[in-house]
Design goal:
- The structure is a single chain.
- The protein is elongated, with a radius of gyration of 19 Å.
- By secondary structure, it is an all-alpha fold.
- The chain folds into 2 domains: 60 residues, Arc Repressor Mutant, subunit A, CATH 1.10.10.60; 123 residues, Tetracycline Repressor, domain 2 (Orthogonal Bundle), CATH 1.10.357.
- The two termini are 37 Å apart.
- Helix content is 73%, strand content 0%.
- Helix 1 crosses helix 4, helix 7 packs across helix 8 and helix 8 runs antiparallel to helix 10.
Length: 199
Amino acid sequence: MSELRAVDGRVPGRRGRATRDKLLKATSDLLVKKSYRDLTVVEIAKRARTSTATFYQYFTDVEAALVELARDLSDEAPRLVEIIRTENWLQLVDAFIDLWERHHAILRVVDLATAEGDLRFRNIRTHLLSQVTDALRDAVVRANGRDVEPRAQAATVVSLLAHVAEHRYGYEFWGIRLEDMRRSTARMVAWGVTGRETI
């Protein structure tokens, strides 16, 4: 992992890191309330109780702060990989729902920016989900005897998990209980990985 640096190349000390973290938290808090396109450096600095000049010491613009928030998502992948190794499919569904619940604002930005062709966000999304896809591919291979291409099968399962997690409130609005959606998704994941619907 590369060393954390300010815009001018300096390595921030403890106070500098704390200030940078405050700016990122302020960005994250504001992102929950409004579109990322409407965020301004002035708002972020004000919420962090610092100055715009201080913001620019750590980030070149608002998008640079959003990229840093998105990069933090990669810390989530090992937990998902560990659950896959236990083959507890219901727990995996819950972990995806929890991930989207805790990080829905920045994940929305990642998805939108990826769809618009921003390579920075696409690479972050790919890095997060490729670790999960690789772990699911390995689980498909372990189940063996199935006439499927393991990575394609794994990628399909990851797409299902991400879509369900992203749209859970929409399903509830349609009258679908979360418990039913969790179990239905877990059965589909189990079938997709092992060929059995046991969860």
